[in-house]
Specification:
Blueprint (H helix, E strand, L loop, with lengths): L12 H25 L3 H5 L1 H12 L5 H36 L7 H16 L2 H12 L3 H25 L4 H8 L4 H35 L7 H10 L3 H29 L1
Helix pairs in contact: 3-11, 4-5, 4-7, 4-9, 4-10, 4-11, 5-7, 6-7, 7-9, 8-9, 9-11, 10-11
Keywords: Cell membrane, Membrane, Transmembrane, Transmembrane helix, Transport
Organism: Marinomonas fungiae
Subcellular location: Cell membrane
Length: 265
């Protein structure tokens, strides 16, 4: 009497071939990308020397430059991030409601909302800034609108997902009593999404502080203008001061956001 032993395999032959095909495609894509961008090996050989030279030029840091230009530019950067986040809510809240299937049942409404949300996320903030600089000219307005239009897709999508995950029991109870649509929103939906709302807005504001720091490179105001001017004039000690200020403000914003979330959520 012969006994057959079955050999357990995690993946079938078809699954293995599929996995190896994906690996092969990724490898080919990587090699093709390297050939397309025409990487010059000589640039990598002297990179450590160039980096050491740049850091040498940055030292000592010109701390006196902070009060001259950096301070006001950083305040402007924070204002751009804050105003941009607030303007975002004007567009993100209606789009989130239109995209939530448990608020609006119309597929056409969902398609319209998703179109704007995806369009917002598809365009980088620097591209938005270039567009608004061309329309409104260099300055804070272009930066605020660039931050706002970039953030709409992020905030609107996450808010729509938070709305769709709420408990529908209170909503159905309010509707059964004959409550108006506005009352259902304010007393049924809003209390349930409030923690997620603050979390999303604070998280986006934190991101916007970082993004607004570079919008000045294309003329949209903030610390980026000071940084760009210093780099163009090869004033590396002032560049170091601007970079140090950006780093400090980003860290401080992160700490503030974490503390506020602990208090509110």
């Amino acid at each position: 009497m012969t006994t057959t032993h079955s050999h357990w395999q995690r993946f079938t032959l078809k699954q293995k071939l599929s996995r190896y095909s994906v690996y092969l495609i990724l490898l080919i894509a990587l090699l093709q990308s390297i050939r397309t961008v025409e990487v010059i090996p000589e640039f990598f050989y002297d990179a450590p020397e160039q980096m050491a030279d740049m850091f040498t030029r940055m030292w000592p840091i010109d701390f006196a430059f902070y009060s001259i230009s950096v301070h006001d530019a950083m305040i402007e950067t924070l204002n751009i991030a804050t105003l941009g986040t607030l303007v975002t809510l004007i567009f993100a809240l209606p789009l989130a409601l239109m995209n939530a299937s448990n608020v609006v049942s119309s597929p056409f409404s969902h398609w319209i909302a998703r179109f704007f949300l995806v369009s917002s996320r598809s365009v980088n903030s620097l591209v938005w800034a270039l567009l608004f600089v061309a329309i409104f000219g260099p300055g804070v307005i272009a930066g605020v609108l660039a931050i706002a239009f970039r953030s709409v897709g992020f905030v609107g999508k996450l808010l729509a997902e938070a709305i769709e995950e709420i408990n529908m029991g209170p909503i159905e109870a309010l509707r059964a009593t004959g409550a108006s649509w506005a009352s259902v929103l304010l007393k049924g939906y809003w209390p349930q999404i409030l923690p997620a709302f603050f979390s999303i807005v604070l998280f986006r504001w934190d991101i916007n502080v970082r993004e607004s720091a570079v919008l000045g490179l294309v003329g949209a105001g903030g610390i980026g203008v000071v940084l760009n001017d210093a780099m163009n004039l090869f004033e590396w000690q002032r560049v170091a001061m601007a970079l140090l200020a950006i780093f400090a403000v980003v860290i401080l914003a992160e700490i503030v956001v974490v503390q506020i979330r602990k208090k509110l959520i």
